[in-house]
Design a protein that fits this description.
79% of the residues lie in helices and 0% in strands. It is mainly alpha-helical. The protein folds into 2 domains: 82 residues, Tetratricopeptide repeat domain (Serine Threonine Protein Phosphatase 5, Tetratricopeptide repeat), CATH 1.25.40.10; 65 residues, no CATH class. α4 packs antiparallel against α5. It comes from Dictyopteris divaricata. Seems to be required for the assembly of the photosystem I complex.
Length: 169
C-alpha cells in the first residue's frame, strides 16, 4: 500500500485527494504522474521522520522526472534529509545540484550557508581561526545570495552579516 493511501491526518488526506484530482485533470504523461506520486510519498515520509523511506521515494521520482524545475525540488529535499542526518557533504552536493537546475532556490542557498556557518563555529571552537574565517565568509556569500532572492526571509542571517561586518549597504 502506498504511503498516500495510509495517511492518517486530515491535511495529508486532503492534499492527497486534491493532488489525485489535479493529476487526473491536467495532461501529464504516465511517467510524470508516477514521478509525482513518488515525490508526494517522499514528502509524506519525510514529514514523519521516515528518512530512509523518503529517500527511496525521492530517488524513484528522480528516475522518472524530466522537468529540471521539479527535479530541483526533489534534489533539495534529498539535501534536507542528508543535512538532518548530519551528512553535510552529501547535503551540500544535493543543494548544489538543485541550484544548477533552479537558481531561484533561496532555501537551498540558506541551507548551504547554515552548514558553512555551523562548520565555521566548530572550527572556531577548535581554535582553528583561519578555517573558521574561511567558512564564515562562505556562509556570508551564500546568505547574501539568499537574501537577494528573498529579502525578508532571512532576518537572522542578515543581522549576523551586519554584526560581523560582512554586509555592506
Amino acid at each position: 500500500m502506498s504511503r498516500s493511501q495510509r495517511n492518517d491526518n486530515f491535511i495529508d488526506k486532503t492534499f492527497t485527494i486534491l493532488a489525485d484530482i489535479l493529476l487526473k485533470i491536467f495532461p501529464a504523461s504516465k511517467e510524470e504522474k508516477q514521478a509525482f506520486f513518488y515525490y508526494r510519498d517522499g514528502m509524506s515520509a519525510q514529514s514523519e521522520g521516515e528518512y530512509a523511506e523518503a529517500l527511496e521515494n525521492y530517488y524513484e521520482s528522480l528516475q522518472l522526472e524530466e522537468d529540471p524545475y521539479d527535479r530541483s525540488f526533489i534534489l533539495y529535499n534529498i539535501g534536507l534529509i542528508y543535512s538532518n542526518n548530519g551528512e553535510y557533504l552529501k547535503a551540500l552536493e544535493y543543494y548544489h545540484e538543485a541550484l544548477e537546475l533552479n537558481q531561484n532556490l533561496p532555501q537551498a542557498l540558506n541551507n548551504i550557508a547554515v552548514i558553512y556557518h555551523y562548520q565555521g563555529t566548530k572550527a572556531s571552537e577548535k581554535q582553528n581561526f583561519d578555517v573558521s574565517k574561511f567558512l564564515f565568509n562562505k556562509a556570508a556569500e551564500y546568505w547574501k545570495q539568499a537574501i537577494n532572492l528573498a529579502p525578508n526571509n532571512y532576518i537572522e542571517a542578515e543581522n549576523w552579516l551586519r554584526t560581523t561586518g560582512r554586509l555592506t549597504l
